[in-house]
Amino acid sequence: MKPKVTVVGAGFVGAGVAQRLLEKELANVVLVDVVEGMPQGKALDMMESAPIEGFSTTIVGTNSYEETKNSDLVVITAGLARKPGMSRDDLQAKNAEIVGGIVKEVVSRSPKAILIIVTNPLDVMTYLAWKKSGFDHRRVIGMAGVLDSARYAYFLSLDLKVPPKEIEAVVLGGHGDLMVPAPEFSKAKGKSVTELLSKEKIEAINQRTRDGGIEIVNLLKTGSAYYAPSSSAVAMAEAMIKDSGRVLPCCVYLKGEYGISNTYCGVPASLSREGVKKVIELKLSQESQASLKRSAEHVREQTVKLNL
């Protein structure tokens, strides 16, 4: 029997997550949105692609949470998207209200589910979801590190003229301006990028990675990224559905790892059907460790504003 995954939010990211789950045949999907007809229409459109794509999984679109009962995974993408000139922090109060309401609805119907949070500001919303759900922290995980690391890998590939799939890239910390690209753990065809690129070039790529989201926002003008974010969330879902133990950079709860406590922050973690199987502690350089702590402290400061 296929797992059941609920995707909350039928916008570009949510619909992308649903489509990828279906086409990879990872799960049967319930797509929820408050806009009447939107999830139903997108679900119908996706199912009409089944004879062409050849998948046997199914999707239901709904405006009600009743269909979400007994979900194994819930991916929360709903919320306001950033607009030009808007920081992730500007979104916080409104999206906290939205995410808090969603968590209440899905948890009451799927008390054994794992929650994957995609809504920005990511780290703060993940902490909020953990508090509101009452779940073990290992079952509430934010999607950011996979996305940030994918952007880093792509930008490195452009300079190194290596296919992106042959780049291993690591980005730690909060999903925002203080994220921490870690070149000492990033490789191209097995070689450290610190051996392949100058310090100045690496810092330029690091900065483009930090600005990766807003670069797309500024280009689109009326939206934000969704192809790579949906891929990132599905990579996490796949690791948990398949119980693979795959190590991915995720926003997870830290309780002493990296010298950080009571904070959700991006670090590598092994994922299984229980959620976070293990947090992987890298031996960071002093500079990266200091940057990670600074990033985590910013997340903590923003989290305090929620008054949870």
Describe the overall structure:
- With 308 residues, the protein is α/β, with parallel strands linked by helices.
- It folds into 2 domains: 4-142, Rossmann fold; 145-304, Alpha-Beta Complex (L-2-Hydroxyisocaproate Dehydrogenase, Chain A, domain 2).
- Helix content is 43%, strand content 20%.
- It has helices at 12-23, 38-47, 50-53, 92-109, 122-133, 145-160, 193-196, 199-210, 212-220, 227-241, 286-304, and strands at residues 4-8, 28-32, 59-62, 73-76, 114-117, 140-142, 167-168, 171-172, 180-181, 187-188, 191-192, 247-255, 261-272, 275-279.
- The strands form 4 sheets. A 6-stranded parallel beta sheet has the order 3-2-1-4-5-6, sandwiched between helices.
- It starts with a strand and ends with a helix.
- The mean pLDDT is 95.
